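So, who can interpret the following?
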Amino acid sequence: MKLWEIAHSRSGDKGNISNISLIVYDRSNFELILRQVTEEKVKAWFGDRVKGKVVRYALPQLGALNFVLYDALEGGVTSSTTLDKHGKSKSSYLLMMEVLS
């Protein structure tokens, strides 16, 4: 199944860092995303779009994971020439990742 079937996401930015929160609709799915949506898998999923490290923070009380993607915005809002300077589409792209139920 795709992540969008069990979760929604939000994204933000600060400089050249992108931040993505992944929040399950039903808390019973939190353990599933905790096991399967790892830093390594997120880094691989984004490929060369994220040049730095990926750090994950778990927020079990919210049923959420927060990912911080370093060197992910082509320099950031003030220097990037990309269409999505803030990286807002990254949260939608993460929701397309497959997980096993």
